[in-house]
Amino acid sequence: MAASDGSLNGNGAHPPARDGRPHTPHIWQPRHMRYAHLTGWGIRVPDRVVTNVDLEAVVDTTDDWIRTRTGIQERRFASERDSVTQMGFEAARAALNRADVLPNDIDMIIVATSTPEDIYPSSASKIQNLLGATRAGAFDLSAACSGFVYGLNMAAQAIRSGSINTALVIGSEVNSRVLDWNDRSTCVLFGDGAGAVLLEGSDQAGGFMDAVLGSDGSGAELLGIPTVGTATLAEGRQMHKLHMDGREVFRFAVHIITESVRDVLEKANLSLADVDLIVPHQANQRILSAAARNLNVSEALFYSNVHRYGNTSAASIPIALYEAEREGRLKPNDNVVVVGFGGGLTWAAAALQWQSMQEKAPKGLAYRLSQGRRELQYIGAFWRARAMKTYRRVEAALRGSPAKHANLREGTPPKGKPEEAPRDKR
Ligand code: UT7
Questions:
Q1: pTM
Q2: Where are the chain's structural domains?
Q3: Residues with CB under 6 A from ligand 1
Q4: Predicted confidence (pLDDT) per residue in 149-180, tens digit
Q5: What is the CATH number of domain 35-220+242-353?
Q6: If you measure from the C-alpha of residue 246 to the centroid of ligand 1, how many angstroms do you get, rounded to a whole number?
Q7: Tally of CB atoms within 10 A around 196
Q8: What pLDDT does residue 4 have?
Q9: Quick check: 84 and 163 in contact, CB under 8 A?
């Protein structure tokens, strides 16, 4: 007997189709689980170095205060040519070179940023265009300084489910453009830069292990950048300028690093003794020292380059991963924990096995050839973008303006009789 909605009979089985053949519904089957490996990494930081002494000339501060309270010695500031998109693109190029992957092979691009040129279009779409990654979906992700680890988790889970195979995760920021130079407690802390990692799917075990993500919006007012949707600015806030309650965020940061490192290790079935390096968001050396004390591990287990770049928000972890590898602190198959925290409030930690996929062929002739193909794709992407713009202009000119076709739409007045503006009836 057919059920009242006509879909199933009384036994829960589908009724026969009208032609009498049995109905066999399509059942979606998940693809088999894969592993997501980090195979490429790259960075781009602006050339301009700004030291604490340079800041003494423009802010009521001292080199000694900044060093002792934060560990920061210098940071990079963007020039007019540097942007989230441009720096992210260059970091992505370096990651693709390291992994020896063509832009055409990328399925997804995620950019974590709080300082994009536009609310939309996303920086990820613009980077997708510059790379010529024509098969990739692209979006920006807003989770402040935790954004890179959020993005890493999203990309890795999409790869593990078999939905995609190759993803770029980028953190890119131009904090120097949102600093309030009248607030000495924040303007000395931040810097600019970008870092990118490439993730690739494989049946070989390893790579991304597990992650914990968290948010507590009750602390939203502690750290932020008001923007276009703000109806009324809270007292002391400025549009597009960063504000922070440093002491509260400091307390939160120490607590949440400790908690989320413990949580992700438990989830990944690891202990602290299994961890070769913790790569935290780089905000303040004192935060890292306090977290190391809480976890009862040596401070040396926490990688730090905050003295060189200050706080680069979502870019700090990929920049730190890149430098840790370059300095020999990260070796193939090392267990790494990355941990981010910041505005939202948000936090995120992930456990990874570093460089655990068999390396591709040594960088010989084949690598140089594919390097050449990558460069050709970037040139092709440039000309493709120009051609598409011209095509859209020509097509619009040939078709005419949408107003010409207004009479084709129901309810629009016939051609030649412009719609009258509503009259004031008084
Ligand atoms: O990426 C997002 C996550 N962000 C963070 O994790 C940042 C967390 N917070 C911090 O790192 C620290 O709270 C700060 C570095 C922001 C501040 O350090 P603090 O030790 O908490 O300093 P404080 O705010 O308690 O201020 C101590 C003193 C104050 O003077 P009084 O009131 O004691 O006379 C400040 O006015 O230091 C003064 N001060 C400065 N002095 C010289 C604040 N900023 C400066 C400065 N130069 N730049």
A1: 0.89
A2: 35-220+242-353
A3: 61, 65, 69-70, 145, 184-185, 188, 223, 246-247, 249-250, 253, 283-284, 287, 311, 313, 342
A4: 999 999 999 999 999 999 999 999 999 999 99
A5: 3.40.47.10
A6: 6
A7: 33
A8: 43
A9: no
